[in-house]
Amino acid sequence: MEKLIREHRRRFGDFDAIDFVDESEVKRLRDQIDVDVPMELHWTWNYGSEVEELRNLYEKGKVAQWNAETDLEWATPCSKDEWLMNPEASMLAQVTKLMGKDEATQKAAMFDELSFILSQLLHGEQAALQLCGQLTNVCDKMDEKWYAASQVIDEARHIEALSKFLQRKLGTIYPIGATLKTLLDILLEADTAQKKTLGMQCLFEGMAVGIMDMMRRECRNPLMTEMIHRIEQDESRHAAFGVLMMRRVVREAEPEQMAGMEDWAFSILEALNANQQLDMLRILCPKYGIEPEVVVQMALSLPNFAELNSMAYMHTVVPNLLNLGLITDRTRDQWKSLGMMWTKADAEAAQAS
Ligand SMILES: [Fe+2]
Ligand SMILES: [Fe+2]
């Protein structure tokens, strides 16, 4: 199976990590703002509904619209002096605490980590907006075009909410991480509707729901909680769109095509997982006198690494892929060995041993 971003791989024991250490290479990737997209476009003359469940999802989306400017309490204070999240949910708050740094430093480290993560979600939202715009062209049924179009306005609203939150409340928008930029470009450049849908709607939307759900549960600031909650509700509709689209694709796929999609999904998520936050750690760690490698080494050697690491994956994306038949016995052990899959049975086995 093809491993993505081979030229930036390095070993941490058994773990094959992606680490961009060369700053000029990172800058080159960020400066690449023009992307060549082979674009298909299909007209349809059937204006009636052909896919009932998609039409229902579209109706749901219409009712659930909200206004990022007026539906959020922008006057809510938000500062470095408060715990914006449960300190245990912040990697950098934990590490600075272990180093014996005072509480103000731990809070500042969490603030920076949160700013970085929300910035990456913001850049991901921009990719979702652009990809979904592509789907209005490449999809061939009117129900699909309508739903994709309604998602375009959702994504614009997410960009609005997150960019305003970062600018007004946290003060910094961090640039996109090199691993994320590479993977999003792969999705945007993909040459078939099927790859675009699987990649963005199932993999990235599914990951976004998992990450946002974890953040919302740990969040202690009411404005941030409300914003994430509202975005997350939209994202779960987007992930559902992905599943509904892919369900029709897999129903008609030959075994060979199924294997191709399974490999592709794994290689995208493997690369995302392989970064282990190194793109963030390289930027933020020097400020706190921390070595990025030490943090990753520590995380990888935790006895419950697989369980912790799998949380974002097991929330939505892995169950959806299992459901679609896109994780089979052929790749299951690989997902497990990288800490991207952790089931109840694994927990019971770990307890028994
Ligand atoms: Fe979004
Ligand atoms: Fe989305």
Quick summary of this structure?
It is built from 15 helices and 2 strands. The chain has 353 residues and is mostly helical.
Commentary on this structure:
The chain is an all-alpha fold. The chain has 15 helices and 2 strands. It has helices spanning 23-31, 52-63, 91-98, 103-138, 142-170, 178-189, 193-218, 222-252, 255-274, 278-284, 292-301, 305-309, 311-324, 329-337, 344-352, and strands at residues 9-12, 15-18. A hairpin with a 2-residue loop joins strand 1 (9-12) and strand 2. Helix 4 (103-138) runs antiparallel to helix 7 and helix 7 (193-218) packs antiparallel against helix 8. One fe (ii) ion binds at residues 128, 155, 205, 235, 238. The site of one fe (ii) ion (FE2) has 5 residues, from helix 4 and helix 5.
Order of helices and strands: EEHHHHHHHHHHHHHHH
Number of helices: 15
Order of strands, main sheet, comes to 1-2
The ligands bound in this entry are: fe (ii) ion
Strand content: under 5%
Our Rg estimate from Cα atoms comes to 20 Å
| Relative helix content | 55-70%
Sketch the major β-sheet: 2 strands, antiparallel
What is the tally of beta strands?
2
Structural class: mainly alpha
Name the overall outline. globular
N- to C-terminal separation? Answer: 32 Å
Residue runs with pLDDT of under 50 for 5 or more positions: none
Give the mean pLDDT.
Answer: 95
What is the strand and helix layout of this fold?
Blueprint: E1 9-12, E2 15-18, H1 23-31, H2 52-63, H3 91-98, H4 103-138, H5 142-170, H6 178-189, H7 193-218, H8 222-252, H9 255-274, H10 278-284, H11 292-301, H12 305-309, H13 311-324, H14 329-337, H15 344-352
Antiparallel strand pairs: 1-2
The chain binds fe (ii) ion (2 copies).
